[in-house]
Amino acid sequence: MSYSVNIIEDATVHYFNLTYHLPLQLSEELLLQNPYTVLISIFSEKTGLPPQFLEVVYNSSTFNELAYQEILEKVTNQTQREFLTQVYYNLSKTPEEFAVGYISMKFNVSESVVNQMLNFNSTSEYIDYVSQIASNKSNIPQWFFISLLKYDNVSNLTAYLFSTHLSPLSKILQKSNLTTNELVLMLQNYTDFRHLASELIVNYANFTPILTVNTTDLIYVISNNITITDLIMSNNFPVKPIPNITDNLYSKNIFLIFMKGNFTHNEAKEFQSYLQNKLNVTTYLTGGETINYKLKKIASDAYSIAIHVGIILAIILAGIYFRSFVADFMPLTIYISAYLVASVLLWAVVIKILNITVNFLTPSEVLLLALGLGTDYVVFIASRYIEERKRGKSKQEAVYEAVRWGGRAVTITALIVMLSFFFIYVYKIPFFSDTAISDMLGVVVVWLASISLFPAILMGVGDKLFFPRKFSSSTEKKETVVKRPVMYIGLISAIVIVSVFVASFTPLTLDVLALLPPSQATQGVSILSSKFTSANIFPIYVVIPYNGTFNQSAYNYAVSVYKELTSIPGVTAVNSPVSPYGGLVNYSDLSSYNYTQYFSHGYMLFVVNQKYQPFSTQAFNIVAQIEKNIKNAYIGGGPVDSYNIYNFVKSNFFIIVGEISVTMFILLIIMTRSLAVSGVIIYTILSAVAVTLALERLLFTSILGYSIFAVVPIFLVSIIIGIGMDYNIFLVSRVHEELEKGEDMEKSVEIAVSNLRVTIAFLGLIFAGTLGSLMLVRASLLQELGFAFAVAAILETTVLWSYLLPSLLIILYKKFKVRPKLIV
Q1: Angle at 354 between CA 350 and CA 360, to 5 degrees
Q2: What's the pTM?
Q3: pLDDT in tens, 397-452
Q4: In the listed set 636, 665, 695, which residue is the last one of a domain according to the structure?
Q5: Contact 595, 520 (CB under 8 A)
Q6: N or C: which end of the chain has fewer CB within 10 A?
C-alpha cells in the first residue's frame, strides 16, 4: 500500500515537471509540503532573508513601514535614526520640501528663511543674510558679525563689547579724535599704557590762557613719573604761567607763596618753618593778618608792661608817700575790686545791652584806667585823712572830713571824666569812640569804690592802715607858694604860644609800618612794594556800580576806567573785569579768563596796586588822585582807610579839640558856676597839650628823624583833658573849701597848693610812669605815645598845676573878683 503511494507521488511530481516545467525538487516539495511554506523557503533561499521576515512581508499590507523598521534596526546612531524617522513620515513630500521642513524643525528656523537661503548662490550672500538677522536680534552692528564670520576677527568683537561701556570717556576721547572702539583696539596692541593715558589726559586738559603748555614735554613728564624735584633740578618745566603772573611771583631771586584759607598765625609760622627746613632759604612771613597779629602783640605787650609798671609804681610811690608798707597796697586793693566789678558791668551793658563790639584791647584799657584813677582817688582821700589827723582830729572826724571834702572833689572830677568819655563816644572820635562807653563804666565803678569801699575800710582800720606811720599835731606854717602870679602867667603863656607855633607845623604820618620795630612782616611789605607790581598786601579797591550784563558796552566802559587808573603815577597794575591778571585782554578773549570775579551783582571791581609803602604819603596821593578821577565809585582798602583817618586828623584836629574843650568848658561852668574859672582850667590843660606836642616834635622829628603818628595828638587831647580834670578839680575844690571856711582867695590858693602839691606830684608821677612805660616797647609809635603821656602828666601835675593854675585863679580874683563856687 505504501508502495502505491510512493508511485503516485512520483507520478505526480513528474507530471508537474513535464506539464509546468517545474524542477523535480520543487514539484516534490509542492506535493509533499504546504505551498506557503515552500514559497517562504524559496524566497529565503534566494534572498538570504530570514523566513520569519518573509512571513511578515507576506502577511503585511504596508511595505513602507516594513522597510522603515528593517532599516531602523540596522542603524545605531541616534541622530541618524531621528533623520530616518523624519524621512519615513515625509515620504509623500518632494526632496526639496523635506529638506526645508527638516532644517526648519532641526534648527528652529522659519521655513521661509530656509527657502530664501536655498536661493542664495554665494557664501557672501549667506553671511550677509545671517549677520543681518543676528544684528537685528542682538543690536550689535552687522559689520561685527560679518567680520567675525568672514575673517574670524575676535579683536573687533572685544573692542565692540568693551567700547559700549566706555561712554563716560567720550569727552576725553573727542579731544584726541578717538572713538571708544578705536581706544579699545589701541589698548589691544598698545604696550605703554601710561603714555597713552598721559596723552589722553593732556589732550583733554583745558589749560587757562594764563598758562603756556608744552604738551609733548608734559606727556613725557607724566608718563615717566618725573618728580617736581627733578623738574626743578633740570630747570625745564612743561607748564609755565604767562609773564604777567611770573613777573609778580618771582623777581630777582625772590619768590612769593600765597596762603589762602582759614588758618591761624601759628599755622602760618609752622608752614614757614617747614619751607625753611626743606629748602634752606630765607623767608619773610608777611600779610595783613601777620601785620595785625604783630600790632596786637605789640599793643598787648605794651599794655602788659604799662599795667605791671603802674602796679609797681603805685605800690612803691604810695608806700613812700604814706611812709607805710600797709597803705601802699590800698590803691591796689581798690583797683582790683573796681576792675572785677567793671568787667562784669562791661559784659552786661556794653556787650549784651548796647551790642557794642569790644576789641581785644578794651579790657586792658579799662584795667589801666582803673589803675590810674583808682590810685588818684584813693591817695587823694587818704591824704586828706592824714591832713585831718595831723590837725588833731579823731579818726571818725578825719574820715568824715576826708569824705566830705576829698570825696566831693573826687565826685566832681569823676563826673567830669565820665561825661568826657560819654561825649567822646557821641562825637565818634577815631580810636576812642568804640571804647569810650567801656572806659566810662570803669570810671563809674572806680568812683563808687573810692567813695564807699575805701572810706569803709578807713573807718574800720583807721591809723593802722598807715602802719608804722604815727600822726601828731602839726602847727608848721606853710610858705607862700605863688608870690609873682603875673610873671608865672606871662612866662608860661609865652612858652605855650611858642609851643603852639612849633606843634602846628609838626609833620604827621599814618604809616604805622614805619613806626613799628623792624620785623619780617614789615620787611616783607617793603619787599613787595619795591620788587613786585601787583602783589600789594594792602591794595586799593575801587567798586563802581554798573547795571546790566557784561557786554561790549560794559567792556568799553571798564577799559576807560582801567586806562584812567593805570595813568596815575605810581600805579603798577590794575586787576579788573578787562584785566583779570593785570594786563588788558581783548573782549573776544575774555571768556577764557576768570573775569567774572571782578563783575558781579551790578558792580565792577578794580584792584589797584602801587609801588609805595601802603600807608605812605605817596600812597595817599594815589588815593587822592583816584578819588578825584573816578566819580560815583566806592573806594576802600588799607591805604584808603588810613588816608581818610589821616585827612580827618589833619583837617579836623582843631575841631576835635574845640568840641572836647567846649564840652568840658560847659560841664565846668555847671560844676564851678564860673565862666572864668572854667576857662582857666581848660587853658591849663591845653597848655600841657601844646607844650607836650612841641617837645614831641623836637625829640622825635628834629632829633630822631621820625614823623609824629597822626593819632598821637588826638590820643593826647582825649586822655589829658579827661585825666587833667582830676588834678585841676582837686585844686579848685580845695580852694572852694577854704573859701567856705572864711579864708580869702590868696590864702585859699596858698593852702590848697601847699597841702596838695606833693600829693598831686606823686599822682602825676604814677600816671607818667605807668603810661610812660610804653617807651620801653621797641616801637616808635608807642614810644611817641608814652613820651607824650608822661611829659603831659608831669607838666600838668608840677609846673602848670603848681604855678599856672594858682596864678590864674589869683589874677582872676584880683582883677574881676571871680572865685570858684562848686555845686557840691
Answers
A1: 40
A2: 0.68
A3: 999 999 998 888 889 888 888 888 888 788 777 666 777 888 888 888 889 999 99
A4: 636
A5: no
A6: N
Residue 16 shares a structural domain with residue 48: yes
pLDDT value at residue 598: 92
Same domain as 499, residue 438: no
Classify burial at 162, counting beta carbons within 10 Å of its beta carbon; exposed 0-12, middle 13-18, buried 19 or more: middle
CA atoms within 13 A on the CB side of 42: 14
In terms of residue numbers, what domain contains 665?
A: 485-509+646-816
Q: Which three cell numbers stand for residue 357?
A: 563790639
| CB neighbours of residue 570 within 10 Å | 14
Q: Is residue 515 packed enough to be buried (19+ CB in 10 Å), middle (13-18) or exposed (0-12)? A: buried
With cell 545791652, the residue in question is 353
**Which CATH number fits the domain that encloses residue 632?**
3.30.70
163/184 Cα distance (integer angstroms): 6
Q: What is the 3-state secondary structure (H, E, C) of 327-392?
A: HHHHHHHHHHHHHHHHHHHHHHHHHHHCCCCCCCCHHHHHHHHHHHHHHHHHHHHHHHHHHHHHCC
Judge whether 821 lies within some domain: no
Rounded-to-integer distance, Cα 240 and Cα 218, Å: 11
Of residues 429, 430, 649, 633, the one with CA closest to residue 544? 633
State whether 492 and 435 are in the same domain: no
What DSSP letter does each residue of 117-186 carry, written as one string?
HHT--SHHHHHHHHHHHHHHHH---HHHHHHHHHH--HHHHHHHHHHTT-GGGHHHHHHTT--HHHHHHH
Instruction: Supply the pLDDT for residue 1.
Output: 47
**Considering only CA atoms, which of 42, 7, 44, 43 is closest in space to residue 23?**
42
SS (H, E, C) 273-336: HHHHHHHCCCCCCCCHHHHHHHHHHHHHHHHHHHHHHHHHHHHHHHHHHHCCCCHHHHHHHHHH
> 638 with 622: CB under 8 angstroms?
no
All cell numbers assigned to 506? 609838626
**For residue 571, what is the enclosing H or E element?**
strand 571-575
Mean pLDDT of the chain: 82
Grouping H, G, I as helix, E, B as strand and the rest as coil, residue 37 is helix
The C-alpha angle with vertex 397 and arms to 394 and 400, in degrees rounded to 5, equals 150
pLDDT, tens only, 711-737: 888 888 878 887 788 889 889 988 988
Residue segments in the chain with a per-residue pLDDT below the cut of 50: 1-2, 477
- Number of structural domains the chain divides into: 5
Place of cell 599704557: 193
> Is residue 240 located within the same domain as residue 375?
no
C-alpha 202/C-alpha 278 separation (Å) is 30
Q: Alpha carbon of 760 to those of 33, 287, 376, 408, 500: distances in Å?
A: 177, 46, 8, 17, 26
C-alpha cell recorded at residue 418: 565820665
Which tens digit of pLDDT belongs to each residue from 474-532?
Answer: 555 455 557 789 999 999 999 999 999 999 888 888 887 776 778 888 888 877 777 77
List Cα–Cα distances, 692 to 142, 240, 445, 755, in angstroms.
102, 58, 30, 27
